[in-house]
Amino acid sequence: APKMSSSPAPPSARSWSISEDSLKRYVLFASESCIQELLSASDSNRVGNGNDGWKVLSLEDGVEISKRRSGSFHTFRSRWLLKSVSPQQFITVANAIDAAKQWDPDLVEARYIKDLEDNLSIIRLRFGESSKPLFRNREFIVYERRETMDDGTLVVAVASLPKEIAAGLHPKQNNAIRGLLLQSGWVVDKLEDDSCMVTYVVQLDPAGWLPKCFVNRLNTKLVMIIENLRKQAQACPSSVHA
């Protein structure tokens, strides 16, 4: 008879406790591909050749919303030209916590669990009972990595940690469902006149938790998010004028 003792624990019970060093190595490795995805999304289709899989959903008032589908994943991209907002001003409010507040005012808790380096953090976002369907009682344990590329382009990469690592860092609350945010984030390109071009990419795994009506509403939501962040950014004193 097979030995029962060697059977693996049920997936929900699994959690990996990893050292800070390993965590840092993992996040640096995982975020590398996220950064490349973000850069290629911000770069592609500038000339509107339409052969790179992005389908423009709307284009008005200088805001372009596009969508790309690969398998069951939906990736949304929004691009804005922000006049008289410097990249530094925008990047101060372009973080996972500020964006989460724009997604849903019923954000119950948003906090940095751990700073691995100056530009590398682990964040916990938790949404409450009255949140919209996508976020109701969900919590997300994400990393956030900020990089400045050689050409001065600023990138903020955000994605969920794998379930087992997240469980080891922060045990799941009983009534919360752990959502997964796939590779998402911002790319901010500096333009002349202290303006910038912002690309925001959000990639969701709809497996069982993305209602169709939400996908259709997401593009209006993206416009609102960037609009709110733009207002916050404009309210931030610019280092240039300090």
TrEMBL record:
It comes from the Eukaryota. Residues 51-216 form the START domain. This is START domain-containing protein. InterPro entries: START-like_dom_sf, START_lipid-bd_dom, START_lipid_transfer. Signal peptide: none annotated. GO terms for cellular component: cytoplasm. GO terms for molecular function: lipid binding.
